[in-house]
Amino acid sequence: MITLGVRDLARAVRFYEAGLGFPRMESPPEVAFFTLNGSWLGLYGRAALAADAGVPDDGSGFEGVTLAHNVGSEREVDAVVARAVAAGATLVKPPQKVFWGGYSGYFKDPDGHLWEVAHNPLFWVGPQDPQG
């Protein structure tokens, strides 16, 4: 489970529930839980990850952590990033083809948490397609 510290719980809930469409679970009023499709931990060099996002490595725009949301196509990357920006996120790096063979973009949520939205045609990390 990933837990984010937020400055305004109601604003953050609106962003993730209404803005991004994450399904909210029943929870006490002082916390909000959302179900996601599994989770992975990726380790990547700090300077390289900051460079990939296009932010400085000195801590002023990058805390050494990004959250990644992997989707099934480049079109989905574009749609998720657009939806996040429409919901109040700040666009950090527009979606584009990237050096590792995929397609990704970055945004910061209203609390400044850095998210990468990516399509990796070489390594799918989502749930298995029940049709295929």
Describe the model.
- The protein has a domain at 40-119: 2,3-Dihydroxybiphenyl 1,2-Dioxygenase, domain 1 (Roll).
- The chain is globular and about 45 Å long.
- A four-stranded mixed sheet has the order 3-6-5-4, with helices on one face. A two-stranded antiparallel ribbon has the order 1-2.
- A hairpin with a 7-residue loop joins strand 1 (24-25) and strand 2 (33-34).
- It contains three helices and six strands; from the N terminus they run H-E-E-H-E-H-E-E-E.
- It is an alpha+beta fold and 132 residues long.
- It has helices at 9-19, 46-53, 74-86; strands at residues 24-25, 33-34, 67-70, 90-97, 103-108, 114-119.
- It is 24% helix and 21% strand.
List the main descriptive attributes of the protein structure presented here.
single chain; 2,3-Dihydroxybiphenyl 1,2-Dioxygenase, domain 1; alpha+beta; four-stranded mixed sheet; 24% helix; 132 residues
Secondary structure elements and pairings:
Blueprint: H1 9-19, E1 24-25, E2 33-34, H2 46-53, E3 67-70, H3 74-86, E4 90-97, E5 103-108, E6 114-119
Parallel strand pairs: 3-6
Antiparallel strand pairs: 1-2, 4-5, 5-6
